[in-house]
Write a structure and sequence with these properties.
The protein has 57 residues and is mostly helical. It is built from two helices and no strands.
């Protein structure tokens, strides 16, 4: 029984999986934030171009 508990305490595979999960979630949040910012920027650019084209005619 003592050996089983000792082996369980030394096993770090669960901690590694949690770390990878945290890293993946942080990367996902960064991508979502960047995509939202980029989407707003592109939308503003297209609106500006559409307005200039409307005034040109």
């Amino acid at each position: 029984m003592k050996a089983l508990v000792s082996r369980f305490l030394k096993d770090e595979s669960g901690a590694t999986a949690i770390e990878y999960g945290l890293i993946a979630s942080l990367i996902a949040v960064a991508i979502i934030t960047a995509a939202g910012t980029l989407g707003n920027s592109i939308s503003n650019t297209f609106s500006s171009v559409a307005g200039k084209m409307k005034n040109a005619t």
